[in-house]
User: Fold this.
Amino acid sequence: MERSSSASVVTLADDRALHSAGTSPQVQTTISQQFLALSMIGLGVLGFIYGDVALVWQHLPIEHMPGAKAVAYAFAAIELVAGIGLLLRHWAKAASALLAAFMLIWAVLLKLPAVIVVPSMEATWLGLGEITVILAGAWVLFASHMGERNGWLRHLTGQRGIRAARVLFALSLPTIGLSHFIYSKQTVELVPAWLPYPIGWAYLTGACSIAACLAVLFGVLPRLAARLEAAMLWIITLLVWLPVLIATHGDRMPWTALVISAAIACGAWVVADSYRPAPSLRE
Assistant:
């Protein structure tokens, strides 16, 4: 009994020392992290195959920009390296930092300018919101793998970082949900033909994203809400883009849409998993 108590005290002291030194115990890799990694690898592979960015989701703001192909290959390399790194336990921390930084640049430089220029167009908000869902997932991984930190990093890592990432995730969802109402005609066209009442499905899925936003923000069964949102995004990914991919014999557009849609679903999944107890992270 005394040995057990002594061991607990030593473990607690070592854990505190790790946090004060700015390091963290190793975080267990989750299935959601692995799937997000695979989606990033998919984007990287597509980038190298086609020598271009991810179409409208990663559109460069300057048409015919000099060095655009080099930028596309750089993006693809980052996505590939970050994805592979997330699958390797010893590289996961560095990979999560790389992915979070890359997704932040993607959101701020490639998506935010359109929102600033045309704030009244919901499509620009949708484009930003889709990427910030992935960013939220990457942020959760970064905050988890970094652990509690001192200085200015304490706002981005550990439990504070995870809570901030959840807020970002929640605020991203209305941009997706509202698009189902504002662009209902386009949304209905994506609903599988075998489903009855396509407009009803368009409105229902849009309302569910908005409801998930409110649940996460106000703490009303937030883990369940995030999980249901992630499941819905996965169902949409498989029911909408997989049949299109098969019907078009693997054209570039459906491949990119499938992988991007999967990455968005994975971002939501990672956020949902962040509600699991994390003994290495303290409030």
In short: The chain has ten helices and no strands. Confidence is low (pLDDT under 50) at residues 1-25, 278-283. The first helix runs from residue 2 to 20. Residues 30-273 form one domain.
